[in-house]
């Protein structure tokens, strides 16, 4: 969801819109700080702050104060009285917007890149945004200080380099489409790709797939599942030699890994300490199906785990023990 684009569209259609932001969370809650929900006049929503009574009450509150209303800070206890047993405390910021906000919202709605904003409260009790000088730290999307609200809008995507457009490669890209990844999808064969790629995947036909690693971004995750074991080996060797990649995953069995380990040492001279980073087989353990969609689901879950580790310790996040 692009909140400002949605808000502007609703202002044009209905004359008003509301934005609900989870600014702080203490204890357990249905969504993290930074979760956002846009509310239309008719109560329809884009995005979510977690569902349940918390969300229903926030929608009702927003609809009742849709125009000419100052921003409201609300603290909600997620206990039995609310019908939600999370037990945490959520601080919500509820804002409304109308035609008078169109001019400053329009540039935000048109932005194609990540937005780092500073929201300051005016004399009318409403917040106005402007570009912030400094971005929030990685993984943080909202922070309240003494005089303003610092916010990040836009996708916080983890870069993923995927080699291979076979059955499992296609299934994995489809599984990743709704997830927070930016996929660079590489294969030698132009006819291997589907006619239309998911919105978060860039197709690259390359006669030299290894070369595509040179310009890969820092902390990109690498997944190898090509049509050729020889190419798999070359790609894994190139990725393991580069310390920028915290995760190097290879599709295959435990026996394939053992064979690759021997060749990585004897043919490429890669130290065993580096080879230990190789994850093969890939995918969360306990899922045994061989269907492409099942494998893709298991791999997508593992990639989400790795993304979470990187967010917790972006400089030192290790890859967990190798499967197999």
Determine the N-to-C terminus distance: 38 Å
Low-confidence stretches: 314-321
Number of helices: 8
Task: Give the number of domains.
Answer: 2
CATH architecture of the largest domain: 3-Layer(aba) Sandwich
Average pLDDT value? 90
Fill in the keyword field for this structure:
8 helices; alpha/beta; Rossmann fold; 2 domains; five-stranded antiparallel β-sheet; six-stranded parallel β-sheet; 324 residues; 15 strands; single chain; 25% strand
Task: Give a description of the structure.
The protein has 324 residues and is of the alpha/beta class. The protein has two domains: 151 residues, no CATH class; 155 residues, Rossmann fold (3-Layer(aba) Sandwich), CATH 3.40.50. The protein has a six-stranded parallel sheet, sandwiched between helices. A five-stranded antiparallel sheet has the order 3-2-1-5-4. β6 and β7 form a beta hairpin. The radius of gyration is 23 Å and the shape is elongated. About 2% of the residues have low confidence.
Concise overview:
With 324 residues, the protein is of the alpha/beta class. It is built from eight helices and 15 strands. Helix 4 packs across helix 8.
Task: Walk me through the topology.
Blueprint: H1 3-14, E1 16-26, E2 36-39, E3 45-47, H2 52-64, E4 72-77, E5 89-98, H3 102-110, E6 115-121, E7 127-131, E8 142-144, E9 149-153, E10 158-163, H4 167-176, E11 181-187, E12 201-205, E13 221-224, H5 229-240, E14 247-250, H6 254-266, H7 272-275, E15 278-279, H8 292-312
Parallel strand pairs: 10-11, 10-13, 11-12, 13-14, 14-15
Antiparallel strand pairs: 1-2, 1-5, 2-3, 4-5, 6-7, 6-9, 8-9
């Amino acid at each position: 969801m692009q909140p400002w684009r949605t808000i502007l569209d609703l202002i044009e259609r209905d004359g008003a819109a509301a934005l609900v932001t989870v600014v702080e969370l203490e204890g357990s809650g249905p969504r993290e700080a930074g979760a956002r929900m846009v509310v239309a006049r008719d109560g329809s929503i884009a995005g979510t702050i977690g569902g349940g009574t918390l969300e229903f009450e926030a929608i009702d509150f927003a609809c009742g104060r849709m125009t000419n209303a100052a921003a409201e800070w609300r603290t909600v206890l997620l206990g039995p009285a609310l019908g939600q047993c999370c037990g945490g405390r959520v601080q919500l910021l509820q804002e409304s917007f109308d035609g008078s906000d169109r001019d400053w919202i329009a540039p935000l709605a048109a932005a194609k890149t990540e937005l780092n904003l500073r929201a300051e409260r005016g004399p009318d009790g409403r917040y106005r945004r402007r570009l912030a000088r400094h971005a929030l730290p990685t993984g943080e999307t909202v922070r309240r200080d003494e005089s303003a609200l610092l916010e990040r809008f836009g996708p916080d995507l983890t870069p993923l380099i995927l080699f291979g457009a076979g059955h499992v490669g296609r299934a994995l890209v489809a599984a990743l489409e709704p997830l927070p990844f930016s996929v660079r999808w590489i294969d030698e064969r132009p006819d291997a790709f589907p006619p239309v790629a998911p919105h978060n995947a860039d197709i690259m036909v390359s006669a030299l797939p290894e070369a595509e690693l040179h310009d890969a971004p820092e902390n990109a995750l690498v997944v190898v599942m090509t049509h050729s074991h020889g190419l798999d080996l070359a790609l894994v060797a190139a990725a393991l030699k580069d310390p920028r990649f915290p995760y190097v995953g290879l599709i295959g069995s435990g026996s394939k890994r053992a064979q690759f380990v021997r060749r990585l040492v004897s043919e490429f001279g890669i130290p065993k300490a580096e080879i230990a980073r190789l994850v093969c087989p890939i995918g969360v353990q306990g899922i045994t199906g061989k269907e492409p969609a099942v494998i893709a689901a298991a791999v997508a879950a593992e990639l989400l785990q790795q993304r979470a580790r990187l967010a917790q310790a972006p400089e030192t996040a290790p890859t967990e023990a190798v499967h197999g």
